[in-house]
Amino acid sequence: MIWDITGIGAVSSIGGDPEEIFAALCAGRSGLAELRAFDRGRFRATRAYEIDDRPASGLDEPGRATRWLCAAIRQALDGAGLDHDLTGIPVLVGTTFREQRSAELWWRGRAPLEPAGLYFGPALRSEFGASVTYTPASACAASLYGLAMATDLIALGLAETAVVAGTDAIPESAFGAIDRVQNRTPQALRPLDRDRSGMLMGEGAVAVVVRAADGHGGPVAGRVRGVGVNCDGHHATRPSGASIGRVIRDAHGRAGVKADDIDLVMLHGTGTPLNDVTEMAALAEVFAGREALPYVTAIKSMTGHTCGGSGLLSLVTALLAIRRGRIPPIAGLVSPIDEAAGFGIPVGCVTGAELRTVQVDAFGFGGLNAVAVVEGATP
């Protein structure tokens, strides 16, 4: 079965909608800046990829992840030519932190706590009448887990249309935890570079409208061929190359494609020493024997790690790359790691690329792995 994506929406540190984000990616423009949300003196790392939408006072405020989520969903519904009534339509929101930042602000005495606002359901009911909501909390693979669930709901005849989304704001506690566990202090997120020193967090939300590809007559931004997921529990933070290889092959099998059919891989690409080496080694094994290896790119080099929504943001980028024939570069990549040898690495934005089928990777802590295969819309 194949599923149409009929509308897309996104908000990030480099743009307020998918086209603006894609243009920034192709221009190599980064959202990296000095931390604004909390006291930089408390951390070794002092930079992040934040959305600069706070009040003029510069003070943080609650509910930002929910606000971006609603904005991305509105964009996706408008793109799909649908009204904003989601009564009976499943909405699946992948997230790592939900509204954890809002709880932190209450704990610090800087904002009142609205317990119902820590969950996205009430806001989605208020804004869109959404009566069926799910919150896959599968770490950094959450939004692609949501996509897998949505395609299953449609394939089983339990829904005709679904909205899949992802959103996260940067919580101070999570930023601090990552700051403490990384051996080095990154100044930027630099996937695949020999001098990469770790991950920096980003903010944003993303949404897509999904329907069965059954001639519904609406606009089509692209198609989902298949989604593979697994959870190996291999290690809290160290990924398993064997498990990543299995989920890639599972996604290919579900999509009805072979390794030779993949033109581009949207990497998970966190810029951490273990993730980059493991991901590229797994890809090298899966694509071994090809006459020419596919292109690879990693948008976290410009958006930061947007956590729960990161996989779906890469997927939306993939659809625009197919449509525009352009592949964004990996910002900050100077000296690629050995494991990336032979893969097509864009130096600057690649134009005129003939892209038909793209693989999208998303891997989370604890061995939560998800891979989607997408293609362009049929003319």
From TrEMBL:
Keywords, ordered alphabetically: Transferase
Domain Ketosynthase family 3 (KS3) span(s) in chain numbering: 1-376
Alphabetical list of SUPFAM superfamilies matching this protein: Thiolase-like
SMART domains the record matches: PKS_KS
Stored Pfam families: ketoacyl-synt, Ketoacyl-synt_C
Tree of life domain: Bacteria
Family: Belongs to the thiolase-like superfamily. Beta-ketoacyl-ACP synthases family.
Protein name, entry field: Beta-ketoacyl-[acyl-carrier-protein] synthase family protein
